[in-house]
Amino acid sequence: MRAEPQSFDRVLSSMCTEPHPAAREAAERFLATNPGDPGTYQTAAALEDRAVAMLGEIVGLEIDTADAIGAADEDGSGGPTGYVTSGGTEANVQAVRIARERAARGTDRPSVVVPESAHFSFRKAADLLQVDLEVVPTASDHRVDLDAVRAAVDEDTAAVVGVAGSTEYGRVDPIPELGEIATSVDALLHVDAAWGGFALPFTDREWHFGHAAVDTMAIDPHKMGQAAVPAGGLLVRSADLLDELAVDTPYLESTSQATLTGTRSGAGVASAVAAMEELWPDGYRDQYVRSQHNAEWLADQLESRGYDVVEPVLPLVAASIPTWLFESLRAEGWRLSRTGDDERVRFVCMPHVTREMLESFLADLDRLESRAARAVPSPGE
Ligand SMILES: Cc1ncc(COP(=O)(O)O)c(C=O)c1O
């Protein structure tokens, strides 16, 4: 049987999207390469340097490609760098690992402070790396409660995590303030911009290395960056942080490796470069504006129908929709998911989500609502 991938026609829940045509073509071209063995697969390795440099430009880090993994500056720290991960999960796990390794020199009980809005990949990281996860609440605006972070940090804190584009509500934590708190206890600040990183440059929010004392960051080309899966990104302010992860690689042509996976696809790397060369900055800006307008339009439409809506800061709307309607819409083929507390349906306005698609969704919602209203006998019937 020759299976075909599903279309994106009714997908409203995914943080990924259809790759840009140039990204798809590059992914196919580099399918059989392995940047995990950079001495042998030199073109893929050079492309990875290019990907990291371009990601650096997006997040306010000037990356000299000569600073690729392992290269040290005169002071021994090395310049900013990073690598193309398999996704946000790997970037977050590796960031926690960097922080744990660095903190291990001062504590035997390293902890990581994360907002309750943080992606579940931090739970995996804590489990794998045996660090304590200190989960702090968010305030009513769904951003981390800074007083709770201040109360949670201490000398065992290895890292403080801020989210720049949260998975459930698309919110951006106060990153500069989190940087100050992390610095006060000599912890690292990791920013998870896995989803938001390609939209935030076009907002006036403070979220990146140029705005705050950020040490490490996740930013995924395979989400809003319109690259093919797998293409995540881990960036670090100085190469010595990445060195915390390096192991010797005796049988390869290169001598050490800081990535979590060994062999990994050059498809993601090549497609990340192709997408960014095609879209940064104007294409991403246009897309962000379109997606944000769609999200705001959808929020208004849902509100006018009487649903309780969390306004979109980034292109993600959350709305309270009753379970029977959520399930009926799913049965109609709409791919929808809910927030962790099951209270709200999330609508992620990714590039494949057009106004026509949202109109068609609302038409289905209205039809199901009126059918249900007709089925309920009015009083006295
Ligand atoms: C904010 C955030 N971080 C991390 C991840 C995990 O990324 P991945 O699924 O690519 O591993 C996601 C996934 O949606 C996310 O939204």
TrEMBL record:
Its EC number is 4.1.1.11. It catalyses: L-aspartate + H(+) = beta-alanine + CO2. Keywords: Decarboxylase, Lyase, Pyridoxal phosphate. Its cofactor is pyridoxal 5'-phosphate. One of its GO terms (molecular function) is aspartate 1-decarboxylase activity. InterPro entries: GrpII_AminoAcid_Decarb, MfnA, PyrdxlP-dep_de-COase, PyrdxlP-dep_Trfase, PyrdxlP-dep_Trfase_major, PyrdxlP-dep_Trfase_small. The modification N6-(pyridoxal phosphate)lysine is found at residue 223. Pathway: Cofactor biosynthesis; coenzyme A biosynthesis. One of its GO terms (biological process) is coenzyme A biosynthetic process. SUPFAM superfamilies: PLP-dependent transferases. HAMAP family: MfnA_decarbox. NCBIfam families: tyr_de_CO2_Arch. Belongs to the group II decarboxylase family. Sphingosine-1-phosphate lyase subfamily. Catalyzes the decarboxylation of L-aspartate to produce beta-alanine. This is Probable L-aspartate decarboxylase. It comes from Natronobacterium lacisalsi AJ5.
